Amino acid sequence: MSMPMPMPGASAGAAAAATTGVDVYAHARAGMFSPTVREDPHYVYVPNLADGTVSVIDQQTMRVIGSYATGSEPQHVVPSWDLQTLWVNNNRGNSLSPIDPRTGRLAGPAVPVADPYNLYFTPDGSYAMVIAEANHDIDFRDPHTMALRHSLDVGTQCEGVNHVDFSVDGSYAIATCEFAGRLVKIDLVHQTVLGYLDLGRDAAPQDIKIDPAGQVWYVADMNSDGVHLIDGDRFTKVGFVRTGPETHGLYPSRDGRFLYVANRGGEMASMRPPFPHTGNHGSVSVIAFATRSVVANWPIPGGGTPDMGNVSADGTRLWLSGRRSNVVYVFDTGGAGGADPGAGKLLTKIPVGHEPHGLTVWPQPGRYSLGHTGIMR
């Protein structure tokens, strides 16, 4: 395990949060439900990419209670900024299917949208940001009707644009460029590109998350088997933490102390984009924000391919799709609400459809959603 380089002039994790007076996840602690979601059933919504369906799992019984068709190649199920809709991103189907989280059912016909690989919302709720990966675009749209307002071409310099997170003040976002080995920084006020950051010729950045202090951005890299540490304001790389093979999804613990890192478990079969991987030696690594180091690792007995998901509202469970395994994994996060990750472990596997991807655990604590599988603030 490699240790990250410290950031100049800043202490780590909680100490940094105390220094900055910032706690990015302060409004997403256990029990901090918005009135909008208090009566929503506790379900998990799993998009099955190869089937064009969404499986619905009851969180309490851990059983699939329903499945319905949405559109071609659903990639992620994304909570809207106002928490009233879950949008299924039908990537090849060029549409977004609305789910009513109060019923767990489709809420109407799909809305036509070009190339919706992923979906985010600006922190002020003014825009939806459709991540049109194949088109090299970030499309700023009306957050309710999805009507196009402005299309930002991030260019082939950001080939494979896919995952995003946002600065504390909402002035900028950073997106990953999977097939270009770069990051792109976006001015959200003017909806323009501020610059690009190379992570290395062989890099394939995936998910991205900002730390609780709002200083360091963690970037999963499936080709480098770990996470890059980025100073977002300066837009420079400041470290790297090795985790496991095919590092992919990133999720903060409910108490904001840890980062759960899904290692999808494959080895590269080709160095040509989209960098196909084979293998199932997946696991979850737990990084402590305070030390920027791995403090626990949760293997999957018999092998697995954990990908995308989220943490339960009380912090006791981590739900992840098994991308090449056609299951959903449920992990016990250890201790009281995840306080002891050393005691974490796999609880069960739930069979779903083919190629499950960006599942959403709902409801989530928080005032509003920034998108993806539930980035709550």
Task: Give the helix/strand layout.
Layout: H1 13-20, E1 43-48, E2 53-58, E3 63-69, E4 74-79, E5 86-90, E6 95-100, E7 105-106, E8 111-112, E9 118-121, E10 128-132, E11 137-141, E12 148-153, E13 161-166, E14 172-177, E15 182-187, E16 192-198, E17 205-210, E18 216-221, E19 226-231, E20 236-242, E21 247-252, E22 258-263, E23 267-268, E24 277-278, E25 283-288, E26 293-299, E27 306-311, E28 317-322, E29 327-332, E30 345-351, E31 360-362
Antiparallel strand pairs: 1-2, 1-31, 2-3, 4-5, 5-6, 6-7, 6-8, 9-10, 10-11, 11-12, 13-14, 14-15, 15-16, 17-18, 18-19, 19-20, 21-22, 22-25, 23-24, 25-26, 27-28, 28-29, 29-30
Assembly form of the protein = single chain
Are there runs of 5+ residues with pLDDT below 50, and where? 1-15
Could you give the distance between the termini? 31 Å
Overall residue-averaged pLDDT value: 93
Q: List the total number of helices.
A: 1
How many β-strands, per DSSP? 31
Work out the strand percent.
35-45%
As a whole number of angstroms, the C-alpha radius of gyration is 18 Å
Structural class: mainly beta
Identify the overall geometry. Answer: globular
Largest beta-sheet details = 5 strands, antiparallel
**How much helix is in the residues?**
under 10%
Q: Tags for this entry?
A:
377 residues; mainly beta; four-stranded antiparallel sheet; 31 strands; globular
Tell me what you see in this structure.
This protein is 2% helix and 44% strand. Mean pLDDT is 93; it is low at 1-15. It is globular and about 45 Å long. Strand 28 and strand 29 form a beta hairpin. The chain is mostly beta strands.
